[in-house]
Amino acid sequence: MKLLRLKSSLPVLFLSLCLLLGACAQSEPASSQSGSFSSQEGGASSSGRPGVASAPFTLAYYPSSSLDPLVTENKTNLTLAPLLCEGLFRLDNTFFPEAQLCHSYTVSEDGLVWSFTLVSNATFSDGTPLTGALAAQSLQRAAVATSNYAARLAGVSSIAGEENTVTIVLSSPNHRLPALLDIPIVLETAVGPLGTGPYVLSTADGTAALNLRSGWWQNTILPITQIPLAAIASTDDLIAAFDAGEISLLDADLLGTNSLGYSGNYEIWDYATSTLVYLGLNAASGPMKDTALRCAISLAIDRDTITGISYANHAVSAVLPVHPSSADFVPSLASTAGYQPEQAVAALETISLSTPLRLLVSSENTTRVAAAQNIATQLSDIGIPVEIQKLPWEEYLTALQRGNFDLHLAEVLLTADFDLTQLLSSGGSINYGRWQNETTDALLSSFRAAQDSARTAAAQSLYTHLLEEMPIVPLCFKNGSVLTQWGQISGLNPVQRNVFYGLEQWGLS
Known about the structure:
Layout (H helix, E strand, L loop, with lengths): L1 E4 L26 E3 L24 E3 L13 H10 L4 E3 L5 E3 L2 E6 L5 E6 L13 H12 L12 E7 L2 E6 L28 E4 L5 E5 L13 E6 L3 H9 L5 E4 L13 E16 L9 H10 L2 H8 L4 E3 L13 H4 L6 H7 L9 E6 L3 H16 L4 E6 L1 H10 L4 E7 L7 H4 L13 H12 L3 H17 L2 E14 L3 E2 L16 E2 L1
Parallel strand pairs: 3-12, 16-17, 16-18
Antiparallel strand pairs: 1-6, 2-14, 4-5, 6-7, 7-9, 8-9, 10-11, 11-12, 13-19, 14-18, 14-19, 15-19, 20-21
């Protein structure tokens, strides 16, 4: 058994991870940039005293939707979860798991049995002590099909708890399991879901607010003692309230399908996400069966142009299917595999295309449509003709399932361990290109099972193989964005699913 003692972490936690379809710098704290300005000048006035707000720091809240982070479908309510709940771990801005409710853990020699010892003094907001049994019950709820976390726990065979220990048994080894356990631990009660986080929900006198707990186990000083919640009933209400300055902060996907539009004076704080934008290739039939053509397409794409123009710099270019901020990233490989149009042209001398390649894209996402047009232009410029077919989502998905494409532009929210099994393994649930390769399957398994220094070698082997075979063409990783009222907040360092990461360092004006 391998024992690891973990340093206790700071107050707040990460949230869910669910799978959806759709560069090279060290990670740094988020920096702000201006948003879409109205004709009015200025922003929130400063009192000159850090930590003292001239107007209440207010967040949005949908009273008609659940606040239970395990099941809620409301993104705005989900944003509040790190203030109310904590997980065994939380992730930093390099996707590294930091201990939160977990004090230490042991792993069996075969990598299948994990025993997590909990911190000794954590309580839920009603005073109920955190126990292994309660933590296990919450994780069991997180594993059911209707949970926001079901996909990441698909490899779990069993979850049990007793005293101050939670035991998780896996169906196959994954030595980055802690990176998947930033799952909120929630206590179900008659008054609603409760967490062990720094704030507790109050709905007294017909108003809602988050109040700082006096008995929070971490006992870290936070700059906000009460956060009023503005009741929201619709997206129109949300936009109007933020534009009017009634809401202080929003977590937004500025490039998502049906993304909302905001005006007024606001700042944008981008943060890294594990959402990979990529070209899927039909490796089972048609011209994309040719490895040389797949590799030529990758070399012909200027990813920096796509991220700069189509994604308005709210993305990070990526040649490898792992975020450049992750410890699994291999800079030496990425530096040799980027935009090389001359080599792409040379590779095409032995390839003959009788008809244009069919590139599918969902018509409902304007950002991806723009990216598809950019890609088609770049490929056509070196002699690869491309015909774009824009389809409504359901038709797009049907075409992928039937293999009616040469290329398709998509995005997938990867888990924080950057496991590509569902995307590239022979039985992968979103392997629409029908890539079947025993070496790929073996390298994916080795990567998941590798630990410590062996993981670096496993990552190098896996990504070298993928660059040689090019079953998909990675393009970029999208950024998430936090919008704040102009000049009201400083010191933000948001991370994926926890925009309040490092809250103790914030300043309010």
